[in-house]
Amino acid sequence: MPSPTITNSALEKFLQQPNIDGSPAWEFIQGHPQQKPMPSLFHSRLQRNLVNKINSQSKAYEAIQELRCIVPPLSPVPDIAIVKNDRLGNEDGPLQGAPDWLIEIRSPDQSTLDLQNTILHCLSNGTQLAWLIDIQRQQIWVWEHQELPLIYSGTDTLPTLDNISNLTVELIITMTQQR
């Protein structure tokens, strides 16, 4: 798959900054650098446990935490990027293009609109599936391809890639408590 060429000079300038991959990472969204919020305990546990769950069930995809993606003119760093193995090369660096499946975990002080705009941009550039997890509301917004989002809760089974099974909203929310 050919890598998209970065044509936006503001994005190029942003990507040359030395501190963008510090913790928490910086993203380039809507033409401006924005630092991601520092994750909470529940956010961090959910991120780790969900990556482990997906990777234990999938042979065709790899789930990766905080992987910088270059999707001109944006450079998002999804909480979890799930990428088909044949798209991951042997060289270190950001993912050129949108992840196949992206998962964002909304922090209380994070703009839902900004997250949705990033998700929509990725969906229009190749992302097949996107989740926006709201721990506080115990809901997950799900976009498939470029369809309108559906909101899942409780025992609803979530759509996945690669036939990953038995992921419900309840299970995802309990991952915030798993050590």
From TrEMBL:
Pfam families: Uma2. Residues 11-160 form the Putative restriction endonuclease domain. InterPro entries: Nuclease_put_TT1808, Restrct_endonuc-II-like, Uma2. This is Putative restriction endonuclease domain-containing protein.
